[in-house]
Amino acid sequence: MLLSADMTVRRRVLCGIVLASLQVLLLRAAPGDAAKTAASKSPTFENDVLPIFKNRACLACHGPSLKTKELDLGTYQSSMRGSESGAVIVPGQPDESRLYHMVK
């Protein structure tokens, strides 16, 4: 299926929003960050990231029903588990996260 230029732009914007949310979650999940996390309201996967995945096409291919490349972005645990190629999210290191590089 070919994407129109408009859909490609929308997809990139969506990916940017998703990645920004994931980066916040990943940075807050960094070891030794417990005091910082407790002091501020932390975003959660269920409240801040999953709604984006649900409202877009992400879960159509990478959700509980269809796990393309064995990647399920439907839960925090399954997202952290990664795909058949390994981890797609590296906690505390967004630039090392495969998900970031795949949708960039």
Describe this structure in words.
With 104 residues, the chain is an all-alpha fold. The protein has one domain. The chain is 55% helix and 0% strand. Helix 1 runs antiparallel to helix 3. The longest helix is centred in the first third of the chain and has 24 residues. The radius of gyration is 14 Å and the shape is globular. The mean pLDDT is 77.
* Shape verdict: globular
Q: How much is the radius of gyration in Å? A: 14 Å
Instruction: Give the proportion of residues in helices.
Output: 40-55%
State the distance separating the first and last CA atoms: 20 Å
The secondary-structure element order is HHHHHH
Largest sheet: none
| Count of distinct structural domains | 1
Q: What's the total number of strands?
A: 0
Approximate strand percentage: under 5%
Q: Mean pLDDT across all residues, rounded? A: 77
In terms of structural class, how would the helical and strand content be classed? mainly alpha
Number of helices: 6
Short description:
The protein has 104 residues and is mainly α. The chain is built from six helices and no strands.
Keywords:
104 residues; mainly alpha; 0% strand
Layout: helices, strands, pairs:
Layout: H1 5-28, H2 34-39, H3 45-55, H4 58-61, H5 76-81, H6 98-103
